Amino acid sequence: MITIKNKKNGPGLKSAVEEISGVDISVCFQCKKCSSGCPVAKLTKSRPSEIMRQLHLGAGNELLENDLVWMCASCETCSARCPMGIDVAAVIDALRRLALERGASKQKGNVSLFNRAFLKTVETFGRSYEIGMITAYKIGTMKLMNDTEKFPAMLKKGKIALLPPRGGDRKTVKRIFRKFKESKGAQA
C-alpha cells in the first residue's frame, strides 16, 4: 500500500524530478516491470514502481528520505525493462540529487562512502579499479580486516586484479570529472 503524507510542504517533487531527469512521469502505467527486474528491490522498503507512483500522486520531500534513493545501483535494469521507455534510473538519480541539494537525511550505512570510493577510482584510473576501491572503502569504514579471507579465492579466479586497468581513455574520463566539478562550482 502506498501512502502519501498530506503535508503543507508546497508542490510535490514531480515537476522538479521531471525537469532534472527529462522524464515524463505521467507516462508510467504501473506495469511494475521496473520493480521485477531491480536487483536491490528486495533489500529496500519501496520498489521503483512505487517511487514512480508516489511521484505521480504528488509526493513531497518525504520521498527524498526513501532508502531506494540511496540503495539504487544505477544498473539501469529498470529503464531497460520499461515498455514505455521511461528512464527510471534517471528519476532515481534526480531524487538523489534533490536529496543532496535539499539536505535530506542520509541513509544509514555506507552507501555514499562506497559510491565515493568507486567514483574516485574511476576518476583516477579511467575505469573501476577494485583494489583501490576496496582499500578506500575499508579505510572509510575502519573495518580493515573484514572479508579478507575471500581475497585469495577472488584473486585465483581472476575476479580481482592487483594492478590498475590500462584500457579506457583516462584523459576523457578526467575531462568529464573536471567539467562536472566546474559546473557544480558555477551552480553554487
Write the topology of this structure:
Elements: H1 14-21, H2 33-37, H3 48-56, H4 67-71, H5 77-81, H6 88-101, H7 111-125, H8 130-141, H9 151-156, H10 170-187
Number of domains: 2
Q: From the alpha-carbon coordinates, what is the Rg to the nearest angstrom?
A: 19 Å
- Can you write the helix and strand succession as a string? HHHHHHHHHH
Coarse morphology? globular
CATH class of the largest domain: Mainly Alpha
* Structural class computed from helices and strand pairing: mainly alpha
N- to C-terminal separation?
39 Å
Uncertain residue segments:
none
Hey, roughly how much beta strand do the residues contain?
under 5%
Q: What profile does the largest beta sheet have?
A: none
Q: Considering the protein shown, what is the CATH homologous superfamily of the largest domain?
A: Alpha-helical ferredoxin
Number of helices: 10
The number of distinct β-strands equals 0
- Secondary structure: helix percent: 40-55%
Assign the CATH topology of the largest domain: Fumarate Reductase Iron-sulfur Protein, Chain B, domain 2
CATH architecture of the largest domain: Orthogonal Bundle
Summary keywords:
Fumarate Reductase Iron-sulfur Protein, Chain B, domain 2, 188 residues, mainly alpha, 0% strand, globular
Describe this structure in words.
It is a single chain. The chain has helices at residues 14-21, 33-37, 48-56, 67-71, 77-81, 88-101, 111-125, 130-141, 151-156, 170-187. It is globular. It folds into two domains: 14-101, Fumarate Reductase Iron-sulfur Protein, Chain B, domain 2 (Orthogonal Bundle), CATH 1.10.1060; 111-179, no CATH class. The longest helix has 18 residues, at 170-187. The chain has 188 residues and is mainly α. It contains ten helices and no strands. α1 packs across α6 and α7 packs across α10.
